[in-house]
Amino acid sequence: MPEIDVCLSPELIHLHDVNGRVAVVVDILRATSCMTAGFGSGVAEIKPFADLESCRKMRDKGYLIAGERNGKKVDGFDLGNSPFDYLEAGSSGRKLAVTTTNGTVAIEKSSGADHVIIGSFLNLEAVAHWVKEAAQDVLIVCAGWKGKVNLEDTLFAGALVDRLYPAFTLGCDAPLVALHCYQGMQDNLLDHVMASSHAQRLKRLDIEKDISYCLQQDLFEVVPRLTNGSLVNVLSR
Ligand code: 3SL
Lower Cβ count inside 10 Å, N or C end of the chain? Predict the structure, then answer.
């Protein structure tokens, strides 16, 4: 039986062997939710970068560039990190290059996995289905916030464990922690997430509509997968 495990922060990834596994990277607020919304609305490709300068250079190659640091759009970039920016970019079928504070760092740190998949509540069922079909060990990599654990990524991890357990065995106690956290809060995710540190940060930036958008489940049947440094949608039914 394959195993499911949860890495609650990218700072803990050295404790896990991603080799031979599917890594499901999650940054609910907001990087992986944005990527899902982008693919769901027609974005052709997303190139993730951990650093600003590599991302900025992609404009010369015809990419729209999306940049966020500390919740704010980076000066000179085309897009910030709102799902609504990505929905708009999707409608024109553009290719995006993206850098964010935590999400794209988590993707880079997971890149040694057999498959790197982008997860969010917006594509939860599509990801669960893809992972079941792959029948391989899975590591859910939570982007967290600057190395610290966060609530919303842990809740997503619990939601995915909820869909896979007991068909998958649990790798350690982190999936159990995430599962119980999700099961206790699932009936009122928005209220619980509004109390989280990142939601408070985003509230100060006056972007509360992004939070409720990112907590919607199964809006898109897309599974973004990293292939040769670019994310492409491997499922669209
Ligand atoms: O850190 C990230 O990757 C971002 O998603 C953070 S924010 O929601 O844009 O503030």
Answer: C
Q: Mind listing the pLDDT tens digit for each residue in 161-210?
A: 999 999 999 999 999 999 999 999 999 999 999 999 999 999 888 888 99
- Which strand ranges, in their side-by-side order, compose the sheet holding 138-142? 72-73, 64-69, 95-99, 45-49, 230-236, 222-227, 115-119, 22-26, 138-142, 3-7, 169-170
Q: Is the CB of 48 under 6 A from ligand 1?
A: no
Q: Quick check: CB of 36 below 6 Å from ligand 1?
A: no
Question: How far does the centroid of ligand 1 lie from the alpha carbon of residue 71, in Å?
Answer: 5
Q: Tokens standing for 231? A: 């994310």
Question: Is the CB–ligand 1 distance for residue 33 below 6 Å?
Answer: no
Does the beta carbon of 71 lie inside 6 Å of ligand 1?
Answer: yes
Whole-model pTM? 0.97
Distance of alpha carbon 231 from alpha carbon 207, whole angstroms = 26
Least Cα distance to 156 among 68, 19, 30 occurs for 30
Please give the DSSP secondary-structure letter assigned to residue 74.
P
Distance CA 119, CA 235 (A): 13
Decide: 25 and 119 in contact? Cβ < 8 Å.
Answer: yes
Q: Alpha-carbon distance 155 to 148, whole Å?
A: 15
Nearest to 32 by CA among 224, 230, 194, 200: 224
Query: pLDDT class for 236, splitting at 50, 70, 90?
Result: low
- Helical residues (DSSP H) of 165-237, grouped into ranges: 173-185, 189-194, 197-204, 208-214
